[in-house]
Design goal:
The chain is of the alpha+beta class. It has one domain: START domain (Alpha-D-Glucose-1,6-Bisphosphate, Chain A, domain 4), CATH 3.30.530. It is 26% helix and 44% strand. The protein is built from four helices and seven strands; from the N terminus they run E-H-H-E-E-E-E-E-E-H-H. The chain has a seven-stranded antiparallel β-sheet. The longest helix has 23 residues. It is globular. The protein starts with 7 loop residues before the first strand and ends with a helix. The model has no long low-confidence stretch (mean pLDDT 90).
């Protein structure tokens, strides 16, 4: 009998740079639209210039023709090691979807950093209806490796 469906999508990539350099890119909300392999993050964020525990940042989002703002609150912050935020979608001033977490964990290794990127969709409100049935776990599994590739390019360009 198969076990319960996993509700987290995780991808990894070795980045040939120190964890501090990778983290410096991740904590800059201005960089997130360029890192987004799914192409959903649109425009400039509103909020602090550098993320910290409890920071709230809103971002323009697009899915097909639907445009909305996501509200992102930093839930995990460990300097140089870990960053996570909970995201909710707002439309016309109301929270309509969300609760998923996006997480980055950085593990220093010889010659660079192992970056683990996770989409924890089981934390969402009504995850089966709002996340699984519309196919987000499969879509994120396809686009998250591109996000890590873009992260690596951004880190190497600043080095």
């Amino acid at each position: 009998m198969p076990g319960p469906e996993p509700r987290t999508v995780t991808v990894e990539r070795f980045v040939p740079a120190p964890a501090e350099a990778v983290f410096a890119i991740l904590v800059s909300p201005e960089r997130h639209s360029a890192l987004d392999g799914a192409g959903m993050v649109q425009g400039a964020p509103s909020g602090p210039g550098r993320l910290h525990l409890g920071a709230r940042v809103t971002m323009g989002m697009r899915q097909g023709r639907l445009r909305y703002r996501s509200v992102n609150e930093v839930t995990v912050f460990e300097e140089g090691r870990a960053l996570a935020w909970r995201t909710t979608g707002r439309w016309r001033g109301h929270t309509v979807v969300g609760g998923q977490w996006w997480r980055y964990e950085l593990t220093p290794q010889d010659g660079g950093t192992l970056v683990r990127h996770s989409y924890e969709w089981g934390r969402a409100r009504l995850p089966t209806v709002t996340v699984r049935l519309p196919g987000y776990p499969r879509r994120m599994a396809r686009t998250m490796p591109e996000s890590l590739r873009r992260l690596e390019l951004a880190v190497l360009a600043t080095g």
